[in-house]
């Protein structure tokens, strides 16, 4: 990929078993519109030894990020101590990637890729992030961001921003990286460091919180607003089936824009078992 840009995702054993989310993630690249070639630029960051072994069996580029004294192998319940530790480990690692001179597209593994997102990024902006809810203005700080998908250019501004982001966890204990970003996006220090932040439209980068309505535009779909691994797997499979159906439609039907997602189905923010 041009300009030293890599695609990164993190993975633990709970999401790496055969038939689980990682297989659906890779499948989306394989059936997307011009996305198969992007697999050559995807690096899967394995958070435990078991996942690293599994990664090597299914993908060419795997990186072991094994944290001594931490076990990230099992499913981390949202906002649990293990979940928070895993999220902040990710932020620290991404800073190191920037310091090595690499731009990156970070994607949660529960995001399906249907088109190459690069044409939708803006070359003049440093940090571009997807949204759970997009208000219509790419620079409106009232947008509700989602840290599961972002495009970041390597420069002094973004490196300093990631340092500030990681350090801010101590100011806001008990919050995950996305919440802390939501707090610090208003901080005057961002203006001082000169970082250009843009929020990405859900028309191209959608999710279950706010789906991309136009199949002719959608680049990615995220299983956000969804608690529970089994729920995510079910609805991600439905999304893949919907995409296959859309791609098989005659051109005239595609142009009518009458096709829509059949999700959410199982996905919900309600606790499991409720």
Automatic annotation (TrEMBL):
Pfam families per the UniProt record, alphabetical: Nucleotid_trans
GO molecular function, one term: transferase activity
Organism superkingdom: Eukaryota
Nucleotide-diphospho-sugar transferase domain segment(s): 38-236
Record keywords: Transferase
PANTHER family: EXPRESSED PROTEIN-RELATED, GLYCOSYLTRANSFERASE-RELATED
Protein name per the record: Nucleotide-diphospho-sugar transferase
């Amino acid at each position: 990929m041009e300009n030293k840009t890599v695609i990164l995702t993190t993975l633990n054993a709970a999401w790496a078993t055969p038939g689980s989310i990682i297989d659906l993630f890779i499948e989306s690249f394989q059936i997307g519109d011009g996305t198969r070639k992007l697999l050559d630029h995807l690096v899967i960051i394995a958070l435990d030894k078991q996942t690293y072994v599994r990664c090597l069996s299914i993908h060419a580029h795997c990186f072991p990020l094994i944290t001594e004294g931490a076990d990230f192998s099992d499913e981390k319940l949202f906002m649990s101590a293990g979940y928070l530790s895993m999220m902040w480990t990710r932020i620290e690692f991404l800073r190191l990637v920037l310091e090595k001179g690499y731009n990156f597209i970070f994607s949660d593994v529960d995001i399906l890729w249907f088109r190459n997102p690069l044409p939708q990024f803006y070359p003049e902006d440093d940090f571009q992030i997807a949204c759970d809810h997009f208000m219509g203005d790419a620079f409106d700080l009232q947008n509700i961001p989602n840290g599961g998908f972002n495009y970041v250019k390597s420069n002094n501004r973004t490196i300093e921003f990631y340092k500030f982001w990681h350090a801010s966890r101590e100011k806001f204990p008990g919050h995950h990286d996305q919440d802390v970003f939501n707090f610090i996006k208003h901080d005057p220090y961002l203006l001082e460091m000169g970082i250009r932040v843009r929020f990405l439209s859900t028309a191209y980068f959608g999710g279950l919180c706010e789906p991309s309505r136009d199949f002719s535009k959608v680049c990615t779909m995220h299983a956000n607003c969804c608690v529970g691994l089994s729920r995510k797997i079910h609805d991600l499979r439905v999304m893949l089936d919907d995409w296959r159906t859309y791609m098989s439609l005659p051109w005239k039907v595609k142009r009518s824009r009458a096709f829509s997602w059949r999700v959410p189905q199982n996905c919900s923010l309600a606790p499991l078992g409720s």
